[in-house]
Every structure is written in structure tokens, then in C-alpha cells.
Hints:
Elements: E1 2-3, H1 9-12, E2 18-21, E3 26-32, E4 38-44, E5 53-59, E6 64-70, E7 76-81, E8 87-92, E9 97-101, E10 107-111, E11 125-127, E12 133-136, E13 139-142, E14 148-150, E15 161-166, E16 172-177, E17 180-185, E18 191-195, E19 202-207, E20 214-218, E21 223-226, E22 233-237, E23 244-246, E24 252-255, E25 262-265, E26 270-274, E27 282-287, E28 293-298, E29 302-307
Parallel strand pairs: 1-22
Antiparallel strand pairs: 2-29, 3-4, 4-5, 5-6, 7-8, 8-9, 9-10, 11-12, 12-13, 13-14, 15-16, 16-17, 17-18, 19-20, 20-21, 21-22, 23-24, 24-25, 25-26, 27-28, 28-29
Amino acid sequence: METARQPSTKAASGRQGTVLKIAGGFALDAAFSPDGKTLAVAAVLTASNPGSGSIELWDVATGHIRTTFSDTGAAVSKVAYSSDGRTIASAGNHGTVRLWDVASGQIRQTLDEPEPGTEDWLTAMAYSPDGQFVASVDAMWNVVTGQRTPIVPTFTNAMYKRCIAFSPDGTRLLVCIDGYVDVLDVATGKVVVDYKGHRTVVSDAVFSPDGKTVASSSEDGITQLWDPGTGQDLATLQDAGGLAAFSPDGKHLVTGGSSGPKLWQVDSRAAVATLAGHSDRITSAAFSPDGKTVATSSLDKTVRLYPAEE
């Protein structure tokens, strides 16, 4: 197993990026539309009033906000676009996944409405690549029929459920529970790999675009690269915890870092740049579909757009 190289002095000086000042407050997540022209941002007004949430849609080219979807009485912590770009799925403290019509800004469908008093934060949510399913850490829904399928019910008592991600072909699912990551077979719901290479809570995990590698990040500042077929470790990236996002071509990876998110070369395991400028915790990172831009959201109430080229 390899240990990664750190940035050069030149790279460590960092990139500041273009700043989007989020009107809705703390930026908890950000997702590009499939055409890369719009960035959806999950925002919550204040830490003391998490029930005031919104989804802001930003024009990537101009850096101006286009419109805002208000989720009255609920915080929004995660957002994801459907593959056709017509729908945005959101999750938050209302304990449900909501599907928004992008054209009208209206809620098209609410998945799995909980009983009053039983609501819980959904801190992880993902759309399948074909747009047919939405998954949280507890269940998967068919967005056409609304059918709900529980996933790994034994996880319901876990303390931390931080992330979920589909494989590029939609046949496997990553679920982060406490300090480990499971690879599930979507068709059967069975665990095919139980990865236990982290020492602390896992906060993010993603498949590479070819589905052959998983990058999982934990709160101790470590990102592990491993084989999802065998669970074998491939490399350890130091000072790289908290989040993970592969570029569309799989050549680069963005992780967290003590001085800001880092841009890594996947093949060489070398950090080539630090994405500087945020003044508070980074909550998410995402590459644009063309791989030229990295968006990071933060509790400093901004989203920054950085050039992804070395």
C-alpha cells in the first residue's frame, strides 16, 4: 500500500477561487447540473434555527443566483440532480427525501413521509446514475413508483450515517456507517464487501468513474483508496480527511485538508494544489461535468469555484 506525497511549496500556496456568497446562510452541500451550467446549493439560515432551509440555484458562468427554492420549516442538508437535470432531490431534518421540479421550483414528490415526532436528519442521499432510484442510508426508493426498499436494516441503531454513493453502473452502493464502509449489491441488498480500514468515523466515500476504486475519508484526516471488489487497500492520503470527490475522468481527486481542500493526482498519489480561501469547515466538494471546475461549500456561508487544471 502506498503513502501519498504532499504538495510542493508552489502548489501549497493555494488557489482562492471565485466566491459565491450564499444568501440562505450556511452552505451544507453543492451539486452541479448535468450540463454544468447550474450549481445547486443546500443552505440553512442559522445554526440556532436549522428549520429554515433553501436550495439556491447559481449560474456557474456569471456567478449570479438564478432562483431559490424555499423548504418552509425544514433544513436542507443534501442536494442531487437527476441524470436528465429536470429534478433535484433534497434531504434534511424533515426525515424525508423531496423531489423538486427544476422548471417550476415546486415539490413534485415526497418520499417516505415520517410520522409526526419521528423525523430525523438525513445526512446522506444519492441519485442513481439512471435517475430511477434515490437512496438514503436507510432505504432506497423507486422514484417512478414510490416503492421503498429498506437497505441494511441492522444499521438503524448506528450513531453516524454520513454518506451513500452509487457505483457508476448503478449496481453497487456505498454506505458509510460509523467507522466502516459497506459495499452493497443493489439488486439483492446484500453486503459484498465490509471495509474496515478507518480508525474513526467515515464522513465521505465515492466510487471512481470506472468503478474500480473507492476513496473514503474519515475524521482523523485520512483518505483511503481501496478496491471495492476485495476491500484491499491501495493507498493512504495523509492530511486529506472529511470529504472526497473524483474528477469525471478519474485522474484527480479532491479531499479535505488542514489548510483547505486538496487536489490530488490519482495515479501518482501526489497532492498538486491546495484550494484556499474558506474560513470555516468545508461541507462538500464536487467537480463540474467537464472536469474543469471544483465547487466547495462551507460553513463560512460561501461556495467557491476553483479551476481544476494543474
